[in-house]
């Protein structure tokens, strides 16, 4: 009888996994679009990415809703909220970048941007692995290893951004194109930065719960 009266425990780690899996799907689509930009049907790809972003937003909303309905949480409530919102920012920034291709009438993608996109996908791949390991805090060393790699990749992203902007100012003569591409480069690098932000949140959670 007492068991029936107790609130059902919600598996928040399942929510984390679903959100990360959805974002990974979006980033894979984004990278595919970027690498086949001149051949792909942009509006179709943009619509698909928007749907995936909406799916991720819905999962975040459901997580927050579940958080508000339960007293039993495996980690601090503030950490759950912080984690899901920051991880969702990654896909939001990616979608915002895709929209700029349309807004700015971008006809072709630079090799430097493709390079930054590859770093983003690799960084999130490490982040996804760290999220999966969170279910068992005994995996602290594995999680830490992923977080260290995320930090390395974020530094690599910074280096590639500097190189891309240096080349942009050296070779591009049209000031409007400089403004466009500088913003696009910086926007995707912010998504890489957000991966590191999430890794920092995960490290903090592990430190408190291991």
Q: Shape, please? A: globular
Radius of gyration: 19 Å
Indicate the low-confidence ranges by residue numbers.
1-7
The main β sheet shows up as: none
| Pattern of helices and strands | HHHHHHH
Give the strand tally: 0
**How much of the sequence is in beta strands?**
under 5%
What is the fold-level CATH name, i.e. the topology?
Answer: Methane Monooxygenase Hydroxylase, Chain G, domain 1
Helix content: over 70%
**CATH architecture group name:** Up-down Bundle
At the first level of CATH, what is the class?
Answer: Mainly Alpha
For CATH, the homologous superfamily is named as: Phosphate transport system protein phou homolog 2, domain 2
Features:
single chain; 210 residues; mainly alpha; Methane Monooxygenase Hydroxylase, Chain G, domain 1; 7 helices; 82% helix; globular
């Amino acid at each position: 009888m007492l068991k029936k009266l107790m609130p059902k425990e919600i598996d928040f780690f399942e929510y984390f996994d679903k959100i990360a899996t959805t974002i990974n799907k979006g980033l894979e689509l984004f990278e595919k679009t970027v690498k086949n930009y001149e051949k792909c049907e942009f509006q179709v790809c943009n619509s698909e990415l928007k749907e995936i972003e909406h799916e991720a937003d819905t999962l975040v909303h459901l997580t927050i809703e579940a958080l508000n309905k339960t007293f039993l949480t495996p980690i601090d409530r503030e950490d759950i909220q912080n984690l899901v919102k920051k991880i969702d920012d990654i896909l939001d920034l990616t979608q915002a970048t895709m929209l700029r291709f349309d807004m700015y009438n971008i006809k072709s993608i630079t090799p430097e941007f493709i390079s930054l996109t590859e770093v983003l996908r690799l960084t999130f791949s490490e982040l996804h692995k760290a999220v999966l390991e969170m279910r068992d805090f005994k995996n602290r060393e594995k999680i830490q290893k992923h977080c260290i790699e995320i930090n390395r990749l974020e530094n690599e992203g910074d280096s590639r951004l500097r190189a891309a902007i240096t080349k942009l100012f050296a070779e591009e003569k049209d000031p409007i194109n400089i403004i466009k591409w500088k913003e696009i480069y910086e926007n995707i690098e912010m998504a890489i930065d957000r991966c590191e932000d999430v890794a920092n949140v995960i490290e903090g959670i592990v430190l408190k719960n291991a």
